[in-house]
Amino acid sequence: MVTTPEKITSPSTQLSDRPKSDRVAVLLMGYGEVESYEDFANYNEQALNLLTAKFAPVPTWIYPPLAKLLAIFDLHEWSHQHGNFISPHNAIFEKQRAGIEAHLQQKWGDRVQVFKAFNFCAPFLPETVLSQIKTEGFDKILIYPLLVVDSIFTSGIAVEQVNNALAQLADTSSHWVTGQRYIPSFYNEPEYINLMGELVQSKIDEELAIAHLPSQIGIVLMNHGCPHKAKGFTSGIDESQALYEKVREQLINRYPLISVGWLNHDTPLIDWTQPNAQLAAHNLIELGATAIVFMPIGFATENHETLLDVEHIIEALRRRHPQVRYIKMACVNDHPQFLEMAANWANPQIEALLSQTALSINPSLAVQSDPGHHSHSHDHDHSHHHH
To answer: Cα–Cα 20 to 30 A to 273, which of 69, 148, 237, 366?
Structure first.
């Protein structure tokens, strides 16, 4: 039996009769890294306020002097130890933004625009970017932290900054935002997990397979280090561990020497995830690895941790195990497959924003007392005497 194919109408065609103001701004959020050494102190102070305060018992008055002290160490490391290093993070993030926007606009046209915001770097702080989004007439926002794991240290601070900015930008009687959606993370997305495994396999085929047996190739899958205690917030350990297990499944039948390796910060008095990346590599060498591959699965965008910190780790291992071959792989960055999948993850949320009933929020009502709260004031005595 031959059937007549149905006419397929794209969402953009279905929604073409909507008002021009009914557009979606995708707020792509990342950490950002300094490009001028003069910004180290300001960057560190913001990081201390937003990140360190979530897990370290540091009084707020010490943030400014501590930020300046840390800036001295940063300057020494980036300038003197690494030949005036400038982080490529922001440039890579712009490529990610442009690539994701290109894919989305193939489907939605100019009704969707992707804006970038950095947690710690002006002029792309969330408050500035959201002000621009409002000025350009967007009324629906998709909050999209381009971060692998959802935790208080990643998307948590992104939402915190967005909420603070939206509170400052709110109108008195009606909020300009009529729709919101959120993409928390992609640690459990099958396409991302498969890509991680494929990239490791390709690197081994290119550089190691000819000289090392599969059982002699150690693989350290690097996650962002997490403190075990984060004042009750979700720290990201469970999600990061789940990501590691899934990528490990992609490789373990060929390469038995695989370990998670956490890129921790050397913060005193804090209990960090273990094994750290250096210890993980050392343990694999003890089991007979003659080559070590470092793959950052918990980072989507290259940064000083995946570059400088991993270089320090490899230098320390070379001094101890000079006979071993070490390979440092890049983050997924602007890999074409990643940009396409990252755009595809946004499509359902954009479609929902364009089709849902507009929100009607009156910020002035939020300051009124909670109607569910009842004050109990009685004249008679409620004291209980126990003999």
So the answer is: 69
